[in-house]
Structures are given as C-alpha cells and as structure tokens.
Amino acid sequence: MDRSLRILLIVGAAATLLLICSAVKRQKIQIEDSLFWICFSGLLVVLAVFPQIAFWLSGLLGFQSPANFVYVTIIALMLVREFRNSSKISTLKYRVDQLAQEVALDENDRGADKDEGR
Length: 118
Prior knowledge:
The protein has helices spanning about 5-25, 30-50, 50-60, 65-115. By secondary structure, it is mostly helical. It starts with a helix and ends with a helix. The mean pLDDT is about 85. It comes from Granulimonas faecalis. This is DUF2304 domain-containing protein. Keywords: Membrane, Transmembrane, Transmembrane helix.
C-alpha cells in the first residue's frame, strides 16, 4: 500500500475521531451512533498501520490493489450506514405521524368536552 495512502488513512481516522469526540461532548450525536464512527476510525488505523492485512484480503478477494480494497470497504461500510440511517428516519417519520394523529384526536376530544360544558 502506498505510503501516502497510509498517511491519509491515519490522518483521516484521527480527524474523524476528533470530530466524533467533539460532537459527543457537545451532545450533537448519541454515544451509540458514535461507536460506529470510532470503530470505523479504528479500522482505518489498523489498515494503515498493518497494510499486510489489506494486501492479504485484496489478494484473497481478487482485487488488483490493496487501495481498491480499502476504497470498496469504505464505500460498503458507508452504504450500510446510510441504509441504517434511512431505516431509522422512516421509523421516526412513522412515529411522528402517529403522534400528530394522537394530538389531533386529543384536541378534538377537548374541543367536544368544552362544547358540552356550555
């Protein structure tokens, strides 16, 4: 693996780790979500420090170069993360719709109770 790619992976992982720690500290991200990014950063560091892993896996899986393997791995992890986020967003949208309907029904019931009290 090229030395510049190794350096880029380490710098990128360190920057990601600092960003995540800062976001957790400012309560912009939940700790459970930050675990993914911390593990992702750790994976990048492991691949940068021990490039033999990337060479071995790229040979095993038929990639022409370890850099291609690293890029595909990063893209695959981001796609999995995006799918999980889309799933969470869909669930939250459904829950918001349910809550809005419950609030509307409660307000309607309170309005009917006021009309009966006249």
